[in-house]
Amino acid sequence: MCRCDKPTRNDEQRGWDTELFAPALDEGDALLFDECGRCRPQVNGTGSIDYHSHHLRLVLRHGTFYLLAKHGGGQERIDVGGQHTRLAELLAPMDSDRRYLMLYQLYGVHRSAAHNARVTEMQRWKLAAPEKRIRTRKQRGRDQVKVWIEKE
């Protein structure tokens, strides 16, 4: 829950330098949308949801769209599709609040999928360990070890 008196964007806060909180652009990034953090009223009208800590940008680089997110945990660059997606055309007619919430939803889908993939892979290794199906092999002439799970 946000403590703002009314729905507020970070760029409306007096004394806030939103560029300080914005994800950094890399060489070759074409900035399409830049949406700073904000708070939004809840549907039932009691209080507001706090998104102040997430600044989102959509960039195009070499024909691929990337969602850049900066938050308290750092900065992320998420590949959201290539040349054949019409993402920019879909987001352009939206007002800033709707566009922010759509980008935030994309970020949430990515975060959830990454978490689920980590949990699934961790369970796979946890099952293989007691069954003694984890194998290792030192790479000849290299300072590396190959590790894999044998099939059941």
Task: Explain what you see.
The chain has helices at residues 18-21, 87-91, 96-128, and strands at residues 30-35, 39-41, 48-50, 55-61, 64-71, 74-81, 134-138, 145-149. It is 28% helix and 30% strand. The N and C termini lie far apart (49 Å). A hairpin with a 6-residue loop joins strand 7 (134-138) and strand 8. A four-stranded antiparallel beta sheet has the order 1-4-5-6, covered by helices on one side. The longest helix has 33 residues, at 96-128. The protein is built from three helices and eight strands; from the N terminus they run αββββββααββ. The chain is of the alpha+beta class. It is elongated.
Radius of gyration: 21 Å
User: Could you tell me the strand content as a percent range?
Assistant: 25-35%
Q: Supply the helix-strand structural class.
A: alpha+beta
DSSP helix count? 3
Count every beta strand, where a strand is a DSSP E run of 2 or more residues.
Answer: 8
Helix share bin: 25-40%
**Regions with little confidence, pLDDT below 50 for 5+ residues:** none
Q: Quick one: overall form?
A: elongated
What does the main sheet amount to? 4 strands, antiparallel
For the residues shown, what is the average pLDDT? 87
Strand order of the largest sheet: 1-4-5-6
Distance between the termini: 49 Å
Number of domains: 1
Order of helices and strands: HEEEEEEHHEE
